[in-house]
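Researcher: Next entry in the queue.
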Amino acid sequence: MQTKFLFLIMAILVVFGCEKLDDNEVSTETSIDTEITTSDGNGEIITLESKTLGTLAYERINGQNILEGDIILTDEQVNAFKNADVEDNVSKSAPGIIFKQWPNSRVNYWIETSNAETRDNIYWVVRYLEDKTNLDFIERRSGNYIAFVESNGCSSFLGMIGGRQEIKINSEFCKSGTILHELLHALGIFHEQSRPDRNQYININYSNIRPGFEHNFTTQFTRNYGPFDFGSIMIYNPCNFSISSSFPFDDCTSDKATITRKNGSLYPVNESYLSYIDRNALLDMYPKDVRSAPTGALDIGANDRGDWVYTRKNGRYIEAVKHNRVILRYRESNSNTSIDITQYGQMIFSGETFTYGSGRYSRHTIVDISEGGGNIYGVARNGNSHKLFKKEGNNWIFVQRLTSNYGRARVSVDGYGRPWTIINNQINGWVYGQPKIIQKPKGFDQNFWSFYDIACSGNSEIFVSMKRSRRTSSTLFRFSIRHSILVQQPPINAKQFDVGGSNGTIWY
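Model: Structure for this entry, 508 residues:
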């Protein structure tokens, strides 16, 4: 599937906050190079061209922005595209991004159609997604929720828009597969054929498209997530909007198709289930569980046995707390607030001082510490540099130099015992057993965004927070091992965090 993610639309269909810009940030009034408005007799067709962001073509009908036939964009989302930053430049940025995923992987919904078959189909889709992903669906008509309503077509908003939002269903044509497709739009997932590299994999046969519907094939701006997925439930039927074939497209052939493979052949149509990549996308977007540590926690540690610990300040002392009980109290210093808990339930702390090398800068102090897979690693500071060490018995063994300045360095150890570090605004990690350098994600690569903390949950669940300068909030990402990409998570309000083992629980 492809940027199927609302966050990966990269300030295109994201919603911008109204916070004051930092001193080193400069807003832009528009990112649009060309805006063209035409009419197809039903409404206005508006095409927005941006050299940086791509192309957005939608239809304005009865006050609604209809994208690619079944996606409803809010005016705020359209304006976000128009006003997005035009350069990946350290001197410019869009205002603060509000990421519209469903918090805590929970979605409220309410069924308002009385059609018995449609109601059964909705319940099946909800149970199917709960079984295949980390999402929980709660039948509740309050707060932010999805209302399934009867209509003459099938459509959905993109991502969570706040309050009541509708998924429109035509009970005659919209069966379980279509409902699943529309619900994925509401979760922030986009059409596969709109990814920017689509022309490497498919042909758009404009001569076969019904006149007036060409704009449904124009939009290209989402980023790539994994390989092009012909099996995705989010890709158009090859004969969608065909001039010579109509729903349910039983007579679709390659000479009638609007979309074909590069060799001109049709691709199988999935109208029933999540593909492997579809499912991975949802797993990467929505974590299993997110829990808040008590206010004032300085650092958090957890293991896959369900143990969790944190440090907090109490006057001139630091308190180590396990399961809400104070276990240890000690005098505060500049380096002894980091904590973790091993798989055997032993608490480990930063602050240990030792000698490595000789001369003026031989004295080293552990300022961050982590355990995983039976291995303990620590980040040590001496002077203005950081180094990574591994604990063997009572000794710290040098592994590598991390930084040569006063920049931030953090470490977390995965279930295989391998260290993941944050250094100089990059992550040093592992992908399929090989070292991997991970840079800041697109849209968060300006100077005022920086990696803040990193945590490993089990063998392959890696989470990292990014902090914006002069702000107290942070943004949480999960690193997708499958596709080597940082995937933004539902919003949190935290400076740092750690996660608990293979169950995927995130403590922050």
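Model: The chain has three domains: 7-99+191-285, 103-186, 292-507.
Researcher: Noted, moving on.
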